[in-house]
Structure formats: structure tokens, C-alpha cells
Amino acid sequence: MRTLFLLLGCLAVSGCADSSATPPPTTTVQLFAAASSVDALTALARIYSQQTGVEVRCNFAGSSTLARQIEAGAQADLFLSAHPEWIAHLDGLGALEPESVHKLVANQLVLIAPRGHGFAVRMDAGFDLPSSFSGPIALADPSHVPAGRYARAALQELGWWSGLETRVLATLDVRHALVVVELGECALGVVYATDAQASTRVEVLGSFGVDVHYSLAVCRGSSAAARDFASYLRSAEALEVFARFGFSQI
Fold this sequence. Notes:
The structure is a single chain. Helix 2 links the parallel strand 1 and strand 2. By secondary structure, the chain is α/β, with parallel strands linked by helices. Helix 2 runs antiparallel to helix 10 and helix 3 packs parallel to helix 4. Helices cover 40% and strands 25% of the residues. The longest helix has 18 residues.
């Protein structure tokens, strides 16, 4: 009889444990991505999570900042960079899965002003941009942030950099440059076309005609879920979403 009671007690406890068991934690993917991709990738992460139940956590910043974070040991599954240099840097450190790098989408570099305060600009070397406005021009930090480096190269190509170099307001990333212009703290700024499209408070004065390619890489030791999300980002469905936010296919 004592044995029977013990057996029944164990079954009862086992039954309760089964019915109230805590479900396994949700699978997560850590995505480190260039700040200019925030709108498109936030939307894509939400769509993918709804379809699969996998939680995608996004960390947005300048590509250089993200690469340094990964180099320092930050937990990242995927890295979307706006400049190939930072992909190559991490690859050289062995931080990326072999042959996992793919060019994903492209963007354009544009000159912006606060809405209602724009003026006619010719995007050629014959136009004197530095003399056409007063005050600073907002750029992502050209010393290391891809958007700023592209901006400096484009301004140099048109012969405008020498007259603007001392007037640059360098920001943490391209989205901060956008905000500075939105607030009217700078008369001009250089951002990506997707950033300008995302704002109702700026207007585009011209395009530099610079194609910026974004590359996606899988970080070393990432899960199957991360690799699946990387594949999804290259799918026709995902590329259509990127297009809605102003990116173009490569």
C-alpha cells in the first residue's frame, strides 16, 4: 500500500509538471545593421517574426561602430554593412562564416536641406556650393562612418570639399546627420536617399550619383535561424520591401 501511494504521488507530481512546464525560450537572431537601413529592416524583422516565430533583435549604428562592437566580442549573428571595408576587416579577424558575404541592396547619396529652405543647386563642379550657403553642413563622421566617407569623396570629386571641410558638423551616423538638418541646425546635409525618403522635414536638392552597396554577412558561430533569416533577406519578398523604402537591387 505504501508503494502504491508513493507511485500515485509521483504520477500526480509528474502530471502537474507537464501541464505547467515553461515553454522553451523564443529563438532569437541578433542583427547588427547600418543605421540607414533602420526602417526597412525593422519592417522586415517584424514580417519574418510573424511568419516564423523567430525574434529578430536589431542593433543599428554606423557600420564602423558595429564592426568594432563585433570585434570586441558583442553577440551578433548577422552584420549588414554599408561599406565593404568593415566586412573585410571582420573577415580578416575570422569573425565571419566563410563565403557568407552577399551584396544585398544599393542606395544613393543625396544633398538635403530643411524643408522649405532649399535652393537651386547644380550637381557639377562648375557650381560653387560652399559660397551658396552659410553655416555648417551635416555629415556622418567622415573619419570612419561609411556615409561620411562616401560624402567626403563625392564632395572632393566636385571640388567642393576644400571649401566645406572646416564647416563639417560630424555626426555619429547618417541618421543623426538627417536629424540635425531636420531641426534646422545645418542648412545642408549629405545623407542616403532612403534617409531623405523617410523624412517629411527635409527636401532633396540633388543626387551625387554615387551607388552605395550594402553587404550582408553571417557571423561566426551563428545559428541555423540566423542563416535562414539571411536567406530571407535575399528573397524576392524581402527585396520588394527594401524597394518600398527606397533601396534598389544590385
